[in-house]
Amino acid sequence: METMRLAVLALVACGSATTQESIDYVGGFAAQFPIPPTWHARAHGVLVEAHAVEDKKPYEFAVRYDDVAAGLPRDRAIEEARDAVLRGTKMPVASEVAASLGDVPGTGIVFTRRSGTAITRIFATATRVYEVSGAGPDKALVVQFLDSFRLVQ
How far apart are CA 52 and CA 57, in angstroms? Predict the structure, then answer.
């Protein structure tokens, strides 16, 4: 699970247009974006992009997912994804707490950045691991995006 499929990447800014839900039925998730995203087919997963910058304050939102190896316990899948996230960032961890999405277990990591907030939440179903991340100067907008993430069938 070293390389997760990049499903969503959106750069947006505070004060953008109203939120729009985007659904990836192949990936099995939905999330609300502050501006309409653009979908692109990729070799590994789907890329959704939305770009805007206001007052040079970019936001970054991402959903990554990968299939879980048969028989791998959920807690182990979460731990492997968490370790990959920590290896892939230079930001120090400010805190880490248990998270859940209904009955789907997970973890939440808050990173320390020079300006603003960076948060990653990781959830594991029986067949897939999801990494939901948001970063930007307005913590409320970051949390709003993270809270909009849901699983779909």
Answer: 9
103 closest CA partner among 77, 82, 68, 74:
74
DSSP-derived letter for residue 68 is: P
pLDDT tens by residue, 103-148? 999 999 999 888 888 999 999 999 889 988 888 888 998 899 899 9
At residue 52, what is the residue type?
A
- Give dist(CA 45, CA 24) in Å, integer: 10
88/30 Cα distance (integer angstroms): 24
For 104, the 3-state DSSP assignment is strand
Measured in degrees and rounded to the nearest 5, phi and psi for residue 128 equal -150, 150
What pLDDT digit, counting tens, does each position of 17-50 carry?
456 777 777 778 888 876 556 565 554 444 444 3
CATH H superfamily, domain 5-151: Mog1/PsbP, alpha/beta/alpha sandwich (3.40.1000.10)
